[in-house]
Amino acid sequence: MKWTEVTVSTSNEAVEAVSNILMEAGASGVKIDDALDYQNLKPDRYGEIIDLDTIPHVTSGAKVSAYFPETVFVPEILPTIKQRVTKLAEYGLNPDPNEVSMAALSDENWATAWKKYYHPVRVTRYLTIVPSWENYQVTQPGEEVIKLDPGMAFGTGTHPTTKLSLQGLETVINGGEHLIDVGTGSGVLSIAAKAMGVGAVEAYDLDEVAVRSAQANLDLNPVAKDVKVAANDLLKGIHAQADIIVANILAEIIVPLVPQAKANLKRGGYFITSGIINDKFKTVRDAIAAAGFQIAQHTQMGDWHSIVAYLPTDED
């Protein structure tokens, strides 16, 4: 089969949104070459995992490539893709340079094109994300490995917003909790939560493609075999009393989620949000505080913010 590769050059902050746009346009997979991911691979306190000089990469911004089968007439959908990417600016995301290109690929090239970009990456002290085809051995006691297939996922799990979410989860999980993952995407947060000892996990995403991607990644990780994943619009129609709700989504979507999260959390529960760019932080923080949450923790990585909020008990 012949394939067409469509590549969008964009900013780091728009990577997840652009990936969604391409998948919704009918792509069979995405490849993300993000300069921030390369920076994350530099030697740090966790030690160097791979030889950085062997990794092809962009030095600034990001390129999101999607693969369309020959049954899709790509020139017809390119203007819509370009228009939707441009419109991201209305949601507070910088899409620039917003350059869209396409190229023909053989079946063999499509199958291997994105694999060279993904390698094991330590994302927290105890969590390492490993591509499904890599044979990786843990390097220290307590290290947990999360297997992901980035070819069908929304991102690699190493973006700053995801890392902030994972760090937030590490601070509040004690074991046995009931957790809801809103906007699960690749499913990485649900898998990590199970690896940290959470009991029941429900994962939701509006996009059916994301649900299928998440399920495929859950299947790669035995620890997450009982995670329930389904399509849903945020928490509409969900009636639960969870201990933790985590949402790594756009700031504009977090705001309407706040009252839904409050209604689905036990008193004393935690609401972890990420995906918050600099100029949206105050809006999200104020919405969370106005709903009666207490801000327990605020962390930042580059231009991105994460909030861990606590729903007070009657005794607080």
TrEMBL record:
It is an enzyme of class 2 (transferase). HAMAP family: Methyltr_PrmA. Belongs to the methyltransferase superfamily. PrmA family. The keyword Iron does not apply. This is Ribosomal protein L11 methyltransferase. Keywords: Cytoplasm, Methyltransferase, Ribonucleoprotein, Ribosomal protein, S-adenosyl-L-methionine, Transferase. One of its GO terms (molecular function) is protein-lysine N-methyltransferase activity. It catalyses: L-lysyl-[protein] + 3 S-adenosyl-L-methionine = N(6),N(6),N(6)-trimethyl-L-lysyl-[protein] + 3 S-adenosyl-L-homocysteine + 3 H(+). S-adenosyl-L-methionine binds at residues 162, 183, 205, 248. Gene3D superfamilies: Vaccinia Virus protein VP39 (3.40.50.150). Its EC number is 2.1.1.-. It holds the Pfam family PrmA. The gene is prmA. It comes from Lactiplantibacillus garii. It is found in: Cytoplasm. One of its GO terms (cellular component) is cytoplasm. Methylates ribosomal protein L11. Its main location: cytoplasm. One of its GO terms (biological process) is methylation.
